Amino acid sequence: MQRMEARVAVSVSDLKKSPSGVMARAEGEAVAVLNHNKVIAYMVPAEAYEAMKRRLGEPEADWKRASGE
């Protein structure tokens, strides 16, 4: 079974209906995005993402290369 690293989870279809509502419900925490009950992504507030990038010190090109883009 896949471990979920977030307290809030949402299906792709529910996320499409109200992305800002999902983020408001998460109250600043990460949100697990599910497709057929499997985590396919995590969504974090912009401030958290920017802070992660600063802490890691990685330029955008490294992120793209790591994800296969």
Automatic annotation (TrEMBL):
Record InterPro entries: Antitoxin_Phd/YefM (IPR006442), YefM-like_sf (IPR036165)
Taxonomy, superkingdom? Bacteria
Q: What does this protein do?
A: Antitoxin component of a type II toxin-antitoxin (TA) system.
Q: Which family does it belong to?
A: Belongs to the phD/YefM antitoxin family.
Instruction: Please state what the protein is called.
Output: Antitoxin
Instruction: Tell me the classification of the organism that encodes this protein.
Output: Bacteria, Pseudomonadati, Pseudomonadota, Alphaproteobacteria, Rhodobacterales
